[in-house]
Amino acid sequence: MRLTVLETEKCVGCQSCMFACSRRVGEAGLARSCIGVRSIGGMERGFSVIVCRACADPPCAKVCPTGALVPREGRGGVRVLPDTCIGCGHCREACIIGAVYWDDETNKPMICLHCGYCVDFCPYGVLGMQKREAENVEE
Amino acid sequence: MLKNDPLENILYIDLTRRTFKIEKRPDLFEKYLGGTGVATQLLHEECPEGCDPLGPENPIIFAVGILTSLFPLASKTVALFKSPLTGNLGESHCGGRSAVSIRMAGYGAIVIKGASSMPVYLSIENGRVRFRDASTLWGMGNFSSGRIIRENEAGAGLRTIMRIGKGGEKLIAYSCVTTETFRHFGRLGLGAVFGSKKLKAVVVSGKSSLPVSDKKEYRKLYDEVYKTAVDSPVMKKYHDLGTAENIVPLSRFGGLPTRNLTAATFEHAAKMSGETFAKKYLGRRLACSHCPVGCIHIAALREPYEDVSYFYKTSMISYDYEPIYALGTMLGISRPADFLRLMDRVEESWGMDAMSLGVILAWATEAFERGLITTKETRGVRLKWGNVKGYIKAGGYIIDQPNDFYRALARGVECAASLYGGMEFALAFGGNEMPGYHTGPGAHLGYLIGARHSHLDNAGYSFDQKVLVEKKMKPEETIDALLAEERWRQILSSLVICFFARGIYTPELVTRLLSIGGIDLSTGDLDRIGRTIHAEKYRFKIREGFALDTVRLPERIFETPAPVSGLDKAYLTEALAYAHKTIRKELDAAP
Fold it and tell me: What is the ipTM score, two decimals?
């Protein structure tokens, strides 16, 4: 299963998902959030929801010089190995949608685990969980 | 308060010297929680007695609370300042991304003093403040200046951009500060205080982590609050049609001020209803940061250009009950598109408080009808109920101020009436123009005794509709009930909880949530703190010359029948004398 942005036009920009993502690890605030909601050049135009798309062949992992981002077998997306990561930031540059977030304290990437915790805190059905197979059929 | 909670940090900015410092003040936040409680103390510390509201010594104080970013709906920023409209306590609340951004930037409050010699905007992030040249932005409206700052500054999605329009630059006494295009520090003229300091905008951004006392309990409590906020019927009206839902019921009830309160029902209420706006114009719904309710309703108005065919402009314009009242029914405007055209100017270009402007234009229309003013004063503008073109023209002149008449309108309805007559139908309370409820004695007493003369201070309009409509009460009983509500609301606004969520945030729940932030208080403690904050506000008001026993009662409120009986001069006078005495006692008892 992967986290999917189903309908951005229904997003009201409440950012409840962002707070949920930090709370997932028991924290309050936004420092640990791996999902972002921002307006598309002003709120009158609506929002974009930026989160890992679980690419089948993730560019972030391909550019990692130490192999600290491990593609998740058959599920898409990556796992971060903090001890292997040197904090070079290449992964952040490689992700063209900006879904590699950064932990300023540890100087290492934070990437969505597709756990789905945030889905329960989106009151408008913008977020959902999807099977990878279904996604492949669509594409 | 928990160790390491950045709430205790107060950011002081001096615009004259272009310096800033951060001071830790845990004492203030432990005693007064945050928001209005802390800001009131800072106002006492920073605002010299009798200062010019448009002078460099008048401070702008922003404060948020301990629950901000911890729990949903604690999403307001409280601004305190000395008001250029009333010359007294200025307090205005605003949502958008402001509260979360200030909290996430690592501050509990921001104090801005001094004045710049040239236009500047402030960029606050990563523990520093940059003073940026805003000469290029001066003269720009809310949309354009917001867009330019957005493109020049970091922190997309994590920032607030507070800015003024032309109204603030021109020191219009009721100009507002806008955040995130559609939310406002609307009332009492914060925009002019910004303008007097040559401060065009303030950008604040951050993304930090906050300590909690018990992680497991935190998640549990959060789920409980969130679920109530999303499912509760008390939030439904804000969620569905928004506050505009009130237009039809209030008109039917007979409490909707219409045509400068010459009537309290509007025959075209259905055309200006929340239902009509939703059906024909609702283009987008928005929410403040960390609020799942999404009460912000934005209309899409598609209009052809007059000079060239097949070119259209689609404007996104926010609407709510209060602007529809002030710029709609008060002006006899019965076409939603006309209201939206006027609202678009107010919000996008002028940056003025919709409520004050509507009441002022309503007074001017009646004064014009009665011949107190003529086209000589109005520079040819024929002020007539429903004539939106005239209102747009007059609003533009208030900005440009080409003559004494428009200069007077720029200072508020009482100033205009003191020069041109018609004080009996100048609808202001304590110098602040009237909100949209003519329900009965509760509403008007509420405006009169409220610390900021707002319907939100103590919800007298609600007391009319829920209590006084059922049974008569003595003046003292009404005052006691209004003061009790206002004291409790000091707690809500010190925790910067949106008043729309007042049905969810009960005293008992508040004490449980506070313990997550490391503050252990009983409901009795909350009551005591609410009293103290209320008294402290009144201490400031009295210091600056406000007196409840001499406050002006506009005759008009007694002429137009209200649906709840008891709205007569004797009742109000008696109630005010009692309120005066009670607040005096409260002040004497305060520590």
Answer: 0.95
